[in-house]
Amino acid sequence: MTVMSGDEDFALVHRFACSFCDGPIRGPYVLWNCHRDLIICATCCGHIKEGFISDIIVCAGIPESRERARRFLKRMKNRRARNTAPRSPS
Ligand SMILES: [Zn+2]
């Protein structure tokens, strides 16, 4: 991700519109090369920071939480199986 503070990349600025509002890009703006190029104008950055970022963080955390829960339940199941297994005579 690159934050462009001005209109220094003239070709880029005039080739693309904001990925969110389709408005013209003028500095400052964000250029993010992820699975596709996203160019976000300063106005949309202001809107996004109000909730979109936290929604993305929450959404990204759901699979991680599910995986942690799955591993926890697997450990508990294994522990229960060890505790209930018949003991061998000594
Ligand atoms: Zn925009």
Tell me what the structure shows.
The structure is a single chain. It contains 3 helices and 3 strands, in the order E-H-E-E-H-H. The protein is α+β, with helices and mostly antiparallel strands and 90 residues long. The protein folds into 2 domains: 2-49, no CATH class; 51-83. The protein has a 3-stranded antiparallel beta sheet with strand order 1-2-3. The longest helix is centred in the last third of the chain and has 33 residues, at 52-84. The chain is rod-shaped, with a radius of gyration of 25 Å. The mean pLDDT is 84. The structure holds zinc ion (ZN). The site of zinc ion (ZN) has 7 residues, from helix 2.
Topology:
Layout: E1 2-4, H1 10-15, E2 29-33, E3 37-41, H2 42-49, H3 52-84
This protein binds zinc ion.
Strand order of the largest sheet: 1-2-3
Helical proportion, percent range: 40-55%
3D shape = rod-shaped
The assembly state of the depicted protein chains is single chain
Number of strands: 3
Radius of gyration: 25 Å
Taking all residues together, what is the mean pLDDT?
84
Which secondary-structure class do the elements indicate? alpha+beta
Q: What's the SSE pattern?
A: EHEEHH
